[in-house]
Amino acid sequence: MAINLQRSMICHYFRRNLLPLLSLLLISAVASAQPDIKFKYKKSQLYSGIEVGSKGVKMSLVEVSRDNDNADFNILKDTSSNTDFISFDTETFTATVKAFAGLYLTAKNVYKIPSNRIFTVVSSGVKIQAVKFDKNDWIDRMIDSFRLAVNEPTREVDVVNVAEEARLSHLGIVPASKRYNTFLIDIGSGNTKGGYFPKNNTIDFKLFQLSWGTKSTANAAEKRIDGNFTLSAFHKQLYRVLEGSANDEIVYAINVSGAYNMSDNVAFSGGIAWSVATLISPDLIENPVVPVTYKEVEKFYDRIYKNYSSLSGEEIAKGLTDPTVNKEEVVKKVKVVNKVFDQKALLAGTGLLLKVMRQFEGIYERKQFYLVKNGQVGWVSAYVDRAISEENSNAKSK
Q: For 303-329, what is the mean pLDDT?
């Protein structure tokens, strides 16, 4: 009763004091936005997924081809706003609601996407932090305020847990032909999650989790440095972290998962997978998935440490000999990677990636490794698949 009253009072405060200002900001944002997308297919439908994550709010626009009854996906645009919702204070709360509602109205009014093709979720990372700090009511209030801002009081906003998020990502990223023999691992900033389907159905999902991610691994190495902040000192301590507690957890988690015996393919998603794929195979810059070997990634790790300057956009473009590759596009995308991951972060993430890959480099059997660039919209693809199935089912029943 007290919680409901509190939520009611906060919503009233939001409606009276913040909604008028927020509405003006949203109208301005939507009015100034322009559809700057290029469609790939002749016959297609546009969908959008908007996620409130730990760092901010992200929107993805996905084009889905409907030719010959095949649902081929093309990612048209990614937009994000860093609002830091998990700080759980008034400023970040207001910024999150503004970004969430603004992106939703942009998808609906600028890109003309029907409401039933716009999916809105709160990530498992936010849920975990809310539970940890007893802030679940902040999620409820944020969703209530979002619904109020977009004037859709019954708007569905799913708060997904870790297992469901990993399951949806697998369904959205891994093609159906490889669904039951692929182990998907998403290496995030603070942790790693993933899994596979052990029983040849999409309901039973074996969850895989690690407390290590790109940023947490780098932070652990930094904490071990005693006044010497050189790259060589960081590299030395990173080696000790990866060989120590990180390796122990990785070995245990993979053994418990049973993934080695059940999977022919191991696919990696997340920021580090995107960055390594972009830098290691610039000739495949347009490919959403890049196959790699353990030796290739190991060689790339040494290159990060010993010859980092060779990983600039201009230097990578110089090494391209295939005339069909768009060098300007390569330079553009490599510069984005360089902006997101500095040398130390790239070392930490690639080192963690190698540690996981190493567990699948068996003497008698070696797995096929893949790096997925567009893993951040995996859950969107899963929602789109479900929506298309429902649309087709409804059409047949009429």
A: 95
Looking up tokens 């191991």 gives 266
Which residues does 5 contact at the CB level (< 8 Å), separation at least 6?
none
Residue 278: what residue type? T
Segment holding 183, helix H or strand E = strand 182-187
Closest by CA position to 70, among listed 181, 176, 171, 180: 176
> H or E stretch including 118?
strand 118-122
Flag the least confident range among 259-268, 285-294, 309-318, 360-369.
360-369
DSSP for 47-78, please give it.
EEEEEE-SSEEEEEEEEEE-GGG--EEEEEEE
Which tokens go with 76? 């048209």
DSSP result, 290-324: EEE-HHHHHHHHHHHHH-GGGGSHHHHHHT---TT
Q: What is the pLDDT of residues 228-264, one digit of tens each?
A: 889 999 999 999 999 999 999 999 999 999 998 889 9
| Residue 4 neighbours by CB distance under 10 Å | 9
Angstrom distance (rounded) from CA 98 to CA 21 = 10
Domains annotated on the chain, with CATH: 2-160 (3.30.420.40), 174-378 (3.30.420.150)
Task: Say which residue the tokens 């300007």 belong to.
Answer: 328
Spatial distance between the Cα atoms of 75 and 82, rounded to a whole number of angstroms: 21
Closest CA to 342 of 350, 330, 352: 350
Helix (H) or strand (E) holding 289: strand 289-292
Q: What is the pTM of this model?
A: 0.79
What lies within 8 Å, CB to CB, of 359 at 6+ separation is 250, 251, 254, 260
User: Strand 118-122 vs strand 158-159: parallel, antiparallel, or unpaired?
Assistant: parallel
User: The sheet that has 265-269: what strands, in order across it?
Assistant: 206-210, 192-196, 182-187, 265-269, 368-372, 289-292
CA-nearest of 269, 276, 275 to 374 is 269
Give the amino acid at 341.
F
